[in-house]
From TrEMBL:
Annotated GO CC locations: BLOC-1 complex; transport vesicle
Family named by the database record: Belongs to the BLOC1S5 family.
Biased composition (Low complexity): 103-147
PANTHER family documented for this protein: BIOGENESIS OF LYSOSOME-RELATED ORGANELLES COMPLEX 1 SUBUNIT 5
Region ranges (Disordered): 91-155
Name the record gives this protein: Biogenesis of lysosome-related organelles complex 1 subunit 5
UniProt cross-references to Pfam families, sorted A to Z: Muted
Organism classification: Eukaryota, Filasterea, Capsaspora
Species of origin: Capsaspora owczarzaki (strain ATCC 30864)
Transmembrane region(s): none
Amino acid sequence: MTSFDGIVKDIGGIHTQLMDHSAFAQREAKAFVKEFEQRRGEKDVQNLSSSLELMTAADTVLLPDTLELLSQHLSSLQVKLYESEALCRSMEDTEHEKKRNRTASVLSTTASAITTSSGGGESAADQPVSAVAAAATADDTAAVPAPTESPVSSP
């Protein structure tokens, strides 16, 4: 049976060489992974290098230019902001004055209507109207906010 064992062993060796590709596949897979890692490593190095160049350019060129432009235009922006704030306050004061004038006009019309309906002379009905007029004027005055300093310091 030893000759039969030798034949089986030889057939098994031939079968392994011809049909079993696992050793070849393992070598090819290892070579592919090694090549892939090398290429990827090179791309990573290239990406890092280009990122470093961009950051250096931003630090040396863009940052000083940005700071210079900021210092040039910030003061003019602040002046425009103060002008806009003053204009808004002026418009607000004008609106409050118009409202105060309308209230006074309505109250004086109401007071004169009450006076003419009561037959002239001062009556008890006139007193509440004048009290309401005084209260309305006082309320309008209190509603106007006092100008305040801006939190931004002047240049």
